[in-house]
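Sorry to interrupt, but I need a hand with the structure work. Please put the record directly below this note.
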Amino acid sequence: MSWKSFPKRYAGFSRAERYGIAGLCGCILLVLIVRLCLPHWVKHQAPDTSAYENEIALFRQAVDSVQAAKSIASVEPTDAGRLTAELFYFDPNTATDKDWERLGMTSRQIRTIRNYQAKGGHFRKKEDVGKLYTVSVTQYKLLEPYILIAGEASSSKKQPEKQPETVPAKENAPVADIPARTLVHIDLNVADSSELTRLSGIGPVLASRIVKYRNRIGGFADAAQLSEVYGIKPELVEKLTPQLSADRSLIRKIAINTATFKDLVSHPYIGEQQTKGILNYKKLQGRINGLDELVRNNILTREEADKIEPYISFGE
C-alpha cells in the first residue's frame, strides 16, 4: 500500500457517511438557532406574589399583636408599679394624667385610656378598668381596691351582686356542659388574648386566633363572627354571646374610593373577582357613593354588600 493512498483509505468518508455528517451538523445548527431565539419568542412573566406578601404581612402583624398582648398580660405588679405606684382612692372617670402616672401607669397606658374616653368610653363599674387591653390582670388587681366610681357604691348596696361559683370544666365535656367561670363582659374589639381566656371554653390558643382574625378583618362588627374563627363552634358562640359586645367605632375601615387592589383583596370578605369589579366600576364612574351602586350593577350581591358594609367608608 502506497503512502499516498493511506489518508484516503483511513480518513475518507463514503457518500452515506458524508450525508449523515451533513444532516447531524444541520440538526445542531437548528438547535442552536432555536435556543438563541426562544427568549424572544416566549415572554417570561414574573409570578404575582402580592397575595403571598400580603398574607405574610398580616401574619407578622398578628404575631406582633399576640406578642404585645402577652407582654402586657405578663407584667408583674413589681414592674407595673408596685415599686413606683402611689396607691390612693380615685375615680377613673375624673382622674387626671398626673393621677394615672402616680398610680404607676406608663405614658402609653395613659394615652390608651384617653383614647377610650375620647371615643365615648365611660367607666360605669370598677371592672371596666380591668377590661382595657393595656391594663394587665395583675395591675388591675393591684388598683381594684382603690377604685371608687361615683354612684357605684350606692347601687351595689341596694342590689348586692352574687358571684357565681367557679366549677372546673370536665375534660372533653360538650360545650353546653362547660360551666361559667365568672360572669364577665368582653368587648371583642378591645380585649387582648389574656382577657379573652376569661371566657368559658376559650383557652390561650383560641384567644390567639381571635386576636389574629380581628387584625385580619379590621375588627368585629358582631359577636356572631367568632364562628368564623377556626376551632370555635357555633354553639360555643351562642353560649358566649350574652357576655360579648363589639364596639363598631373601633373597626378599621377601607376607604373604597382611594383603596388599591391590595387593600381590597386582602380583606377576607372581598374576593379577587369582586375587587376587580369594584376597581373597574370606580375607574369608569370616577367615584363610588354607596354599596347599593355595586349591587345594582351586579358587582356585589346584596348578601356580600351587607357583609362588608361595616368595613367600608366612602370618604377620601
Remarks:
- The chain has 16 helices and four strands.
